[in-house]
Amino acid sequence: MNSVTTMPATTHETSVPVDLEYLSEGLDQLGIGLLAFDQDERLTYSNQSAIDMVALDNADSDERPHLVQMAGVFGSSLSSAVEEVRQGSSRSVRHGLHCSNQHGRHMLIDLSCLPFCSMNNDSCVIALLHDVRQRHQFSDDTKFLRQELQILTDVAAALSSSSELVQILKVILTGATAAQGLGFNRAFLFLYQQGTNELIGHMALGPVSAEEAGNIWKDLDAMRLSLEELLDSNQSDTGERLDAITDLITDFRVRLDDESAIGRACHDSSWLNLAISDDTDNLTSAFAQQLNTDKLALVPMVSKGNLMGLLAADNQITGRPISDEAVQLLQVLANQAAVAMERARLYDNQLERSRELERTNQLLAESQDQIIKFEKMSVIGELTSAIAHELRNPLTVIGGFANLMLKSTLPDENREYLNIISSEIRRAETVLDQVLDFSRASKGENHPIDFSGLVRRSLDLLKSRLARRELPMFLSQASEPLTVFGNSDQLSHAVYQFLKLVAEELTPPGEAEVRTELRDGQALMLIKIRRPDHEREQVRRTLERIITQNRSSQRLTILVAGETIRYHGGNFGIACGDDNLPSLYIELPLIKEQPSEPTHTGG
Amino acid sequence: MSPHILVVDDDDGIRVLYQTELAGEGYQVTVVDSGRTALAAVSERQFAVIILDIDMPDMSGIEALTHLRKASPETPVILNTAYSIYKQDFQSWLADAYVMKSSDLEPLKKKIKELIDSVEHKCQP
Fold it and tell me: Taking CB atoms and an 8 Å limit, are B104 and A392 in contact across chains?
């Protein structure tokens, strides 16, 4: 409603001459219009702001406009205010005059009329025109810009603190959909796959229905979080409900082409404020249809000229129109996101390389240890071979002569002694056989080895040599490949010796299951003894005796076999599994990286 | 006439043992201590079987085997050694048999008999 104020005149207030040119310059800068009228109510002066407001096309013509001619703009308000001043009022004010000029400009004018004395001492009335709508508009614009800046700052801060792609994508979608952010109802994120030139649905945020939207937005509103707090917050129940919309685009692929609007937007890196119509190309229509919408904003995500994805947003729930300004702001958000995604990708690459280097270093260190161990084994093998050979001849001669003498006629006492010599020589020769086997194995080279195959072949070999009275053995082989690294001859020898000792020490009833399996990154061989329950403790003691080398005849065998396992980074011992069956186990580290195909050693 | 066996081994004890044992079995036995003397012996007479050690100084049994095969292609040779590893040396495949040294001489005596029987069987009209 307009308000009118009239001040009574005071003496001499109009007598001071004022330079209108000087005054109008200052008023122009403030956007305030100035009109000066003489005694005949003709316009004697106007500044540029007033010309723009009143739209006086003939302001510069010879004939000066009359106050009455401005009634089209100000109605009677200006005339009456001027008249009041002419009648003696020191000021006549009108607030909130709704005016329109002939150019269609709508204004909300605050009008002040004052008496005035020109430099020529001519008395006149001046009118000051202030379009307060501009001021309100400016204030609204400033507020809006401040909000946009705040949104971008909050999003940028959230993006800069995250190097994980998933987290970055969530920040983008949250920034686009949060009421404290850009306020879109829903946002969808597609990642670009360069090889196939496809956009692939990856993640989305928003309610799945209007009803759900009401509940979620109510809950979010109740939380009273700022955008910064919302971006920082972890997944809540509300967040999970908003994620459900991702199902709409999961596995949805769009092959881009330059004929479609969506393809051009991606390849030209330009945003789209899209309203689907009959003229819309099929690809773009199908895209919108997949999202159940017909109005949506599309902004490509581009970093260093490379398309990284596409962000789509709409107001499908509220039906609120999407302004170009909102899409432009979404584009700024997408640009930030693209840079963050690129940074995350580089970070991931760097991290992967760093891990690779760490793995390589570890492998190198382990290889060095292994090489040293294998070198030692090789030297030990050569040494034992030489000793064994030197011992073989004297043993053969002593034993041979003892046997020869046993064929002759001897006193019983001497025969008994010769029998002892012969028997001990035979035992010593058995030990030498084992040492020579080990020595031979030490000369082999190291390769990746199929551990299950090695166990199978060792067991087959043993079965062919087992007498009927020994414990029957059967194999359960791991379904997955168990590749270990080392000397297959050495390991075969060690595995064979363990199997042989178990088979010889344990007799029926019962059976032994030889089982290979993957456990905790190790290749495992278990020799599980199945015997009646009451004999389990006895079985456990027998196995214990085997591995603790309690029998002198087995001492060297177990020593060599055990050391071979340890030299290969493995271990052996007695275990009792969930089934309570006592078992002897051998474990060896699985190969980390396979330089070549596993060696299949001959039987 | 009993078959004549040549024993080639650089170890004195082995030579005495084999000579005693094989003579006891009814064979004629000649013992020499190196590959060179073995080649000389073969050039002088025909043997039914040669028992040849491998690890010897001067000339190894494997090398001697090659020469013996040329000098007397019909004579069976038994490689007799402390090392099983020589079984994998393809040159050792030239031998008719490979017997590991042991105080139990039965496997060796069995192999000698087999080879002599086999040669005699071939020579029968």
Answer: no
pLDDT digits (tens, 9 = 90+) for A339-393: 888 888 888 888 888 888 888 888 778 777 766 766 666 676 667 767 777 788 8
A-side interface with B, Cβ within 8 Å? 385, 388-389, 392-404, 407, 422, 425-426, 429, 436-437, 440, 443
**Contacts of A561 by beta carbon, 8 Å cutoff, 6+ apart:** A493, A494, A495, A497, A498
What sections of A508-571 are H helices per DSSP? 536-547, 552-567
Interface size between A and B, measured as CB pairs under 8 A: 60
Measured in angstroms, the CA of A417 and the nearest CA of chain B are apart by: 16
Indicate the pLDDT class of residue A594, thresholds 50, 70 and 90: very low
Same CATH fold, A444-603 and A3-138? no
What is the C-alpha to C-alpha distance for residues A112 and A34, in angstroms, rounded to an integer?
10
Q: What are the tens digits of pLDDT across the range B65-86? A: 989 988 888 899 999 887 665 6
Whose CA is closest to A489, among A435, A437, A526, A524?
A: A437
Listed by start position, the domains of chain A span 3-138, 145-348, 444-603
Beta strand segments in A293-408, E: 295-303, 306-314
- Domains in chain B, CATH or no CATH each: 4-123 (3.40.50.2300)
Which residues in chain A have their CB less than 8 angstroms from residue B13's CB?
Answer: 393-394, 396-397
H helices within A272-323, ranges in order? 282-290
Partner residue opposite A394 with nearest CB, options B13, B21, B104: B13
CA distance A138 to A146: 12
CATH topology for the A444-603 domain = Heat Shock Protein 90 (3.30.565)
pLDDT digits (tens, 9 = 90+) for A247-296: 878 878 889 888 899 998 898 888 999 899 888 999 999 999 988 898 99
Contacts of A426 in chain B (CB under 8 A): 103-104
Torsion of CA A329, A335, A338, A339, to 10 degrees: -130
Q: Which among A510, A535, A515 has a CA at the least distance from the CA of A525?
A: A515
Q: How many CA atoms lie within 13 A of A474 on its CB side?
A: 4
- CATH number of the domain at A145-348, out of 3.40.50.1760, 3.30.450.40, 3.20.20.10, 3.30.450.20? 3.30.450.40
Most confident segment among A403-407, A486-490, B110-114: B110-114
At the top level of CATH, the class of A3-138 is alpha beta
Q: Scanning the structure block, which residue is given the tokens 């004929």?
A: A259
Got the DSSP string for A467-504? -TTSPPEEEE--SS--EEEEEHHHHHHHHHHHHHHHHH
* CA dist., res. A302 & res. A331, Å (int): 10
Alpha-carbon distances, residue A15 vs A12, A123, A235, A395 (angstroms): 5, 8, 74, 146
pTM score above 0.90: no
pLDDT at A256: 87
Chain A, nearest residue to B101 by Cα: A396
